[in-house]
Every structure is written in C-alpha cells, then in structure tokens.
Design goal:
Blueprint: H1 7-16, H2 20-29, H3 35-52, H4 57-66, H5 68-76, H6 82-90, H7 95-104, H8 110-123
Helix pairs in contact: 1-3, 4-5
Length: 124
C-alpha cells in the first residue's frame, strides 16, 4: 500500500489509473517509490494517455449528458469538482467545446480550457 500524505496525488492516481491495464503500466514503469518518482511517472503516463488513449468522444458525450462532472474528470484525467464544473458552465463550456479544444491541444487541462473560454468570451 502506498503511504502518501498528498491526498491530491492519491486522487489523481485514482482518476488517471482508472483501468487494470493502466495500473499495471504504472507498476511496470515505476522504479523508485518516492513522491517525486510517483509524480513524474504518473503525469508522464497521463500525457501519454491523453495523446494516445483518450476516452472515445462518443463515450464522453454520452457520459456528459448523464454526469458532466464525471465526464470532464475522465476526459481531462483530472479531479473535477462541482465548483470546477460550474465555472466551466459559466464560462460557456459544453461537451462540444471540450471536444474541439481536445482536437486542438490533447494535453489541455480543464483550467486552461476555462481560461481559453473566458478569453474567447472577452473578445466577442
């Protein structure tokens, strides 16, 4: 069992390593079980998954209609809470915009997407 004091890192691990295959990849890659190594390997894998193994768009759109917070968490592979979701909605966020942003920049974070929406809104 990982003895990690950083709850945010543990939450991110649960979101990023959301399949048995991904957990096994993490275990096979990690060499030193220390905070820095875990952090580095985890976020390298996250970027790899966002580029090479993202959630299918049809699955994301269907999930977004049912549970947008969970959909955004899986789409961006990061912890999204209710406040993040409401900021996303107030900025004009939608499933379609998330997909369009992903096509332009696969490693874009939700915060970066919100900032991009706010800049777009300020321009118009």
């Amino acid at each position: 069992m990982l003895n990690c004091e950083d709850n945010a890192l543990v939450n991110d691990m649960q979101i990023i390593l959301n399949t048995t295959v991904r957990c096994n990849q993490f275990i096979n890659v990690i060499v030193n079980v220390n905070y820095y190594s875990i952090f580095t390997v985890l976020y390298d894998l996250k970027n790899d998954y966002l580029l090479n193994d993202p959630i299918p768009i049809s699955d994301f759109e269907a999930m977004y209609n049912i549970n947008p917070i969970e959909a955004l968490s899986r789409f961006y592979l990061e912890n999204v809470d209710t406040l993040d979701y409401w900021v996303w909605v107030q900025a004009g966020g939608s499933a379609e915009l998330a997909v369009n942003f992903r096509k332009a920049n696969p490693t874009l974070t939700l915060i970066e997407a919100i900032e991009k929406l706010e800049r777009m809104r300020d321009i118009t």
